[in-house]
Write a structure and sequence with these properties.
heterodimer, A: about 110 residues, 7-stranded mixed sheet, 4-stranded antiparallel sheet, 11 strands, globular, B: about 110 residues, mainly beta, 5-stranded antiparallel sheet, about 60% strand
Chain lengths: ~110, ~110
């Protein structure tokens, strides 16, 4: 297992379009997290899953955002009707439930809304 | 919301010098972690210190934790050009919450 994979690495979309990102965590990790990071800021928590259950969603996650982890393995993050303010790096991380352990992050998906 | 706050926001030092970054947080924690992020890349976990520990070492890294002051420090000794990155502290509350980071620049 080579770590956490995110796809695509970069996405440019027009305002109003829908986009979907994918994250493949480390296979034995049952927790998966999504963060968003804008330039010069630290990552902001969006949501996390334990297996297939979505346990917490940040208030940052508006109704236009939805995340799934259907079989407790990979996860998708969809943004509907994108806005320019959605432009950011979207980071996925995974960890074991029992810990404490550090998180393993993917390289992120950079979204640019034009 | 961001729980941790790093200080300074930016730091430039000569290669070979030691770099110290501080982190303050607001509420009680289970553990505190430090991460490094190279420009435009994902974060890399550096070290985790539990709330009942006061100091921890990993290679050239030394982390201290003072729960009474709700603060932590990260010391990088004998800095190298490759240490140029942003460094974040993160506190654990079922999910980790990051500060805004310290941008470290190692000058040749």
């Amino acid at each position: 297992d080579t770590g956490v994979s995110q796809d695509p690495r970069h996405k440019i979309t027009k305002r109003g379009q829908n986009v979907t990102f994918r994250c493949d965590p480390i296979s034995e990790h049952n927790r998966l997290y999504w963060y968003r990071q804008t330039l010069g800021q630290g990552p902001e928590f969006l949501t996390y899953f334990q297996n297939e259950a979505q346990l917490e969603k940040s208030r940052l996650l508006s109704d236009r955002f939805s995340a799934e982890r259907p079989k407790g393995s990979f996860s998708t993050l969809e943004i509907q009707r994108t806005e320019q303010g959605d432009s950011a790096m979207y980071l996925c991380a995974s960890s074991l439930e029992t810990g404490p352990y550090g998180y393993t992050f993917g390289s992120g998906t950079r979204l640019t809304v034009v | 919301s961001q729980q941790g706050e790093e200080d300074p926001q930016a730091l430039s030092i000569q290669e070979g010098e030691n770099a110290t970054m501080n982190c303050s947080y607001k509420t009680s924690i289970n553990n505190l972690q430090w991460y490094r992020q190279n420009s435009g890349r994902g974060l890399v976990h550096l070290i985790l210190i539990r709330s009942n520990e006061r100091e921890k070492h990993s290679g050239r890294l030394r982390v201290t934790l003072d729960t009474s002051k709700k603060s932590s420090s990260l010391l990088i000794t004998a800095s190298r050009a490759a240490d140029t990155a942003s460094y974040f502290c993160a506190t654990d509350d079922d999910k980790i919450i990051f500060g805004k980071g310290t941008r470290l620049h190692i000058l040749p």
